[in-house]
Amino acid sequence: MLGVNSVDIPNRSLFRQPEVCEIAQVQPYVLRSWESEFPDLGVSKSAGGPRVYRRADLERVLRLKHLLFVEGLTLAGARKRLLEEQPPLETEAPGLDELLGSDARERILQVKQGLREIAAMLAKAPGNGNGTTRRKAKGSSKGHAKPLFDLAEAPSRGRAVRKKAPKKAKKK
Question: The domain spanning residue 54 has which CATH number?
Answer without folding.
Answer: 1.10.1660.10
